[in-house]
Amino acid sequence: MNVIEKVSELRTWRRQPGDVFFVPTMGALHEGHATLVREARASTGGRVAVSIFVNPLQFGPKEDFSRYPRTLEADLALCESCGADMVFAPTADEVYFEDRSISIRETSLSRVLCGASRPGHFDGVCTVVAKLFNLVQPDVALFGKKDYQQLAIIRRLVRDLDFAVEIRGSETVRESDGLAMSSRNRYLTEEERSLAPGLRAALLSARAAWNAGETNGAALEALTRKEISLRCPLGAVDYVSAVDSHTLAPLEEIQDQGLLALAVFFGKTRLIDNIELHRDESKR
Predict the structure, then answer these.
(1) CB neighbours (10 Å) of residue 208?
(2) Annotated catalytic sites, by residue?
(3) Which residues touch 269 (CB under 8 Å, ≥6 apart)?
(4) What is the pLDDT of residues 54-94, one digit of tens each?
């Protein structure tokens, strides 16, 4: 497996012929990331590329950029064990010029959900993903559905800026108790960790109510909040929102399709999760 730190070396690597499947990450890899890399490996006779880069542009001034876990040695071992051919692990100075003056701004899908409480976050995501797409030039890029808003925004980025890359969304990988895998789970105290699976349970309760005939978005949001308060007494809700799966626009009624998404703080640790609601996929 090649480990590349320099853009010039990456460009040389990419000149080799064949398809490239790409998994962008910020490191601190876990089984969720491993699943994406293995999925990429199983999908192609070409090459599998992974990036490990903690992107400073997507962290707000009061967020955890400095304490975000950096576990490069373990991350590289995981990537190699899952079949990656190359890992691009640059420094911030290699990715961004000191006097850079151009970035990408998203003005629609980022106004709701996480974007409402993290202004500028998805502009930073779009900017770094665009740069990585230009550098790696993948044929296919894989993202997890846990951050459903990010996936929707990247799909819009590819559509609006005409990137020649197929975006694939993979199902959220969970712990045995249902908690969505996240690099930030390690910040939870023992008590918080024992309660955090209640987020998934709350979403499943809302889906059961929807399957039983409750289609009002506000009612489903209220039910989810009530379940969180009962199951996660240490959690502070940032948002619970019923939105369209494609546009992320708020829905008054969820008829044939929708998304119920949430963000909850346990202390300073902010966890996100969601559940898709589709009449033809009601068991998802």
Answers:
(1) 12
(2) 33
(3) 184, 185, 187, 188, 192
(4) 999 999 887 878 888 899 999 999 999 999 999 999 999 99
Asked if 251 and 235 touch (Cβ cutoff 8 Å), the reply is no
Token look-up 């890399």 returns 37
Could you tell me the fold of the domain covering 2-170?
Rossmann fold (3.40.50)
The verdict on pTM exceeding 0.70 is yes
Give CA–CA dist 239/113, Å, rounded: 7
Q: Which helix (H) or strand (E) holds 11?
A: helix 7-14
Q: Which is nearest to 121 in space by CA: 180, 181, 165, 61?
A: 61
What does the block give as tokens for 283? 């068991």
SS3 category, 280: helix
Instruction: List the domain boundaries for the chain.
Output: 2-170, 183-281
Looking at domain 183-281, which CATH architecture does it have? 2-Layer Sandwich (3.30)
